[in-house]
Specification:
mainly alpha; Rossmann fold; Serine Threonine Protein Phosphatase 5, Tetratricopeptide repeat; DNA Cyclobutane Dipyrimidine Photolyase, subunit A, domain 3; 3 domains; five-stranded parallel β-sheet; 21 helices; 47% helix; globular
Amino acid sequence: MTAPHIVWFRRDLRLADQAALHHAASLGPVIPVFILDDERAGDRRYGGAHRWWLHHSLEALAGELERLGNPLVLRRGDSVAVLSTLAAETGAAAVHAIRHYEWWWQQAEDALATALPEGCDLHIHDGNYLFPPGSVATGAGQPYKIYGPFAKAAAGRLPPAEPLAAPDRLTAPDARPRGDRLADWRLLPARPDWAGGFRSYWGGKVGERAALSKLEQFDRAIGAYHVGRNLPSEQGSSQLSPHLHWGEISPATVWHHFDGRPEEGWSKFKGELIWRDFTQNIILQYPRYGEQNAREQFDRFPWRDPDADPGAAADLKAWQKGQTGYPIVDAGMRQLWAIGWMHNRVRMIVASFLVKHLLIDWRHGERWFWDTLVDADYANNAFNWQWIAGSGVDAQQFTRIMAPLTQSAKFDAAGYIREWVPELAGLSDADIHDPPAGIRPGQYPEPLIGHQQGRERALTAYRQMKAAG
C-alpha cells in the first residue's frame, strides 16, 4: 500500500474546509492524529475550560472519523517528538497540518521541519483564517498594526476562497497505530466537578455538527446582530466564538454562508471575522503579546500588585468571584464561571473595571480569561485586554474609563443581572443597575470602590506613569 500521510489536528477539529485533511486524503492512506502537548505551550497549556471543551470536541471528531472508517489516534507529549516517532513507526510519507500562529506552535512547526525521518516531508497549509496572517500588508509590504487600515485592505481581497468539501471517505493504513483513550487524559474536572453549568449550557453542542447547527441558528438572528450584540439580556450574539476558536467551523464557511446578504447585521459581523484575522496578524509581529506591554511606557505603570498587596489580592478575588458590588460586572463574572463564556459587551465592562477601577494589571485578567473561557484565543484575548488597558499597539486611551453603572442601564442589562445575580432578582429595572442604600439586599456586597473614586485613582496613576517618562 502507498505510504500513509499523517494529519496533525490542533485547533482545526473539523472535516469540512480542512486543507490538511483534504490534501492528505488525495495522496493516499491517512492517519489522523491529535496530540495533547502541554510541554511546548509551557504556561500557555490549555486552561480548565479549554480542556472541558477539547474533550467533547475530540469526542465529536473521533465519531465523525469512525464513520469514515478511519479512527482518530490520540497521543500525549511533545508534538515534535511524538510526530517524529509516529512517522518512523508508520513509514509515513508526510505530515500535514494547518498553520498556527501562537509562538509555541510556530516553534513546534519550525522544529518539526528538521526532526522528521528522512523521506517524510512536512506540509503546512493555511485554513484557519480568511487570509493567511501576514499576507494582508501595506503597499511597502509591511504588516499592519492598526485595525482600520488592515480592515480596508482585507476588504479589497474578499471574499475568501470557497470552502473545501468534507471527504466522503478516508483510506486507512493497513495497520492502525496505537493511541491513548480520551478518558485517560482526564480533561474533564472531577474533584471538584465544577462543570455542571457547562454541561447544562453546552451539553451536546460541541463539535463540527454543533457548529453548523449554531450557524443555522444565527442565520435567523443576524439581521439584528448590529443591535442585539450589545444587549446582554438578549440572545443577539452568534456564540460561534468557541466553534471558530477550536476550528470546528472555518471562517470561510461562515463568510460564504452569509455573503451577499443585505442586512446591516451581516455587515457588522463581517468586521468581527476580519478582527479575528487582524489579531493573528498582531501576534505574528509580537509573539509575546499575551505577556508583554506593546507600549513600553506601561512597564512603568503603578499597578496595584495582588502578589504583594493584600488589598489588591482581595479585590482580584472578589472580581473573579463576581462579588464586586457592581451588578453588571458580577453578572458577567458569574456567567463566565458557570458556562465558560461571557457576552462580548460585558467582557469589555469587566475588563475595564479590573484595569481601571481596581488598578490591577491587565495580565491578571488575561490569565483568568485564559483559564475560564472555552473560546480563550491567545491573539484575541491578549489583544482585547491590551486594547482596554491602553497598552496595545492599537488601543483606546487609558483615560477612557467605562462607567459600568451607566453601561448597564444603557444596554438594558436588567434581565441579564436577574439571571446571573439572583439575589438582586426582586429589584426593579430602575434600581437593579445600582441598588441604592436601603434597597440593596444584605447578602449582596457593597461596591469595592465608588466609580468617581476609582476613576480619579486611575487617572492619578496614569499621570504618574507619564511623569516617569
